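Quick look at the format.
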Amino acid sequence: MYLPAPSGNDFELAPAGTFLAVCYRIIDLGTQKTTFNGKEKEQHKILISWELADEFMSDGKPFMIGQRYTWSMSEKATLRKHLESWRGKAFTDADFAGPPNGFNIRNILGKGCLLTIAHKEKDDKNYANITGIGKLMKGMTAPAPSNPQMFLWLETELWDVNAYNILGDGLKKIIAESPEYDAITHGRPLKPASESENPALDDMNDEIPF
């Protein structure tokens, strides 16, 4: 697909600080209803997940953390800001040429970054939030993720029901509530994404991680 927080219940909270991390999962959550300042609206959301390369839980598995993003590349969008800081290069209007020459969001799978995490308390619970993403420093490399890499997108030609079925019940429920999921599972055509929802990223080179 071309471009346009964990709870603190019984899970071990990812540590605060800046860590070497690698992206292992990208999931299209479809159009979701959100409420901001008392107003409800619908926004296309995605989930990107990372594992921390050198930080491990008590069971020996690496800590994992994810963030939901609005599928938007407007100048104020968090997704754009995080991708720009990860690339180490700002986008220009020329970067959004669209397919087939644009940048596929899938390209960030398996790529490393420096992930900054901060803890925040809300309603007597602690949460780990991603506050920044940076490009690896010169000479740094990221290992392959130990978690299976997953890309799941709500388009007919990209949909993978087997990948969907192995998700946790919470994520499956969120996806199943989207109109995109309803269209796919009932064989109805999906409304084409507008160009603003599908920005593409061009001008990649060896100095940029994806």
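Next, a different chain entirely:
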Amino acid sequence: MDFRVEYSDRLLANQWWTAKKLEIDGRKPVYVHPVIAEMRQRKDWLISKGLDPSAYEAWTREVEGWQESGDLHPSIVNSLMDSLSPSPEVWRDRIERDQPQPVPQDRTIGFQIGEYLKLLMAKHKAGEIGVDEYELTRGCLEVFKTWIGSDAFIDKLDADKWEAWYKEVLNSKISSAYKHKRFRCAKNFVAWLVTKGRIPGPPNLQARAYRFGASHKEVKPLSVNEVLAIINKAKGVLRLHLMLMANTGMGQKDISDLSPEEIVWEDGRIDRRRSKTKKIKTPYVSWVLWPETWRLLQEYAQKEGDHALLTESGKPWVRKEIVKGKISKSDNIKSLYAHLDIKAPLKMLRKTGASMIKKEFGREVADHWLGHGPKNVSDRSYFAKDQEKLDEAIAWLGRQFGF
């Protein structure tokens, strides 16, 4: 008897029973074409043997697409099955000798990544991590899942597989900084599997040999005249935004998050932690404001509420939230700036100020102005920040710009 006919009859019988059971349970049966079912069984066999199932995954998606569009003609199916290697006879022998066990759903990479993201979502809702950290992890793990296979056993995460992932990231066409992030997100996920007792974990998970070199991309600051040209082109509240960036090194999120309590109204200062790093307890920084910055802040800032600066519609200037598992964000400061038709990105105001202060006053003062945390035990334990030196540096920077 032709194997494909015998095998298809068996699959059809199984599908009938599955459909009948769903009917009894009050659920709508889902029809699965025999060829699709056969491909899935072959894929499960390959996975059970630790072999690459990607070819059958790709063909299964292709055939499913044909079925959905109504183009799954028998001649196409037969031609496809005859073209795949090895032959149906070989597959019959394989499956009869070694019936593959379906991959337990809770032992797959795709399922466990989903569980891990649920944990991160809970941490986000509790205020432990921000939208950006969640979205970065989700995106990086999506790449990891595609590479290793959503249906792959988590048990396959051994030392060889982990080193293969390092090589994959190392050879990818992305920046060194993003290579580090992509590798870190996958490492955190695997470490979570270990702490949950799901897998013993690859012994080289924390290996120091898996590093990524720095990109050494040179930061070319703007000139004084270029900074002035940008600020002087802006009007109204956008001018305030740019003045805050040049004066204090704030980014858009810092400006949006600035609260009335962080403004020292009697002294013309801003006293706060940077929004990006407040979760890791970086030190408070007290920035003295230039007269023009202070004038504009008094004009536009509110003295009550959660946000000192709001849009005309009363919303925060930068909004980031997760809706149904997807990130939703808007940056109205960036949108206003885009209307100026200036090529230099907003972050160049911060980079320029830091470069100028570092050249004139040294790295420590520049890091203080940037709101960076201590870099070592000595900084953390023994050296207090020099407020007078920072005030001097900010005043000097203002004079360079004519403020």
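The first strand starts at residue 263 and ends at 264.

See the schema section for token definitions.
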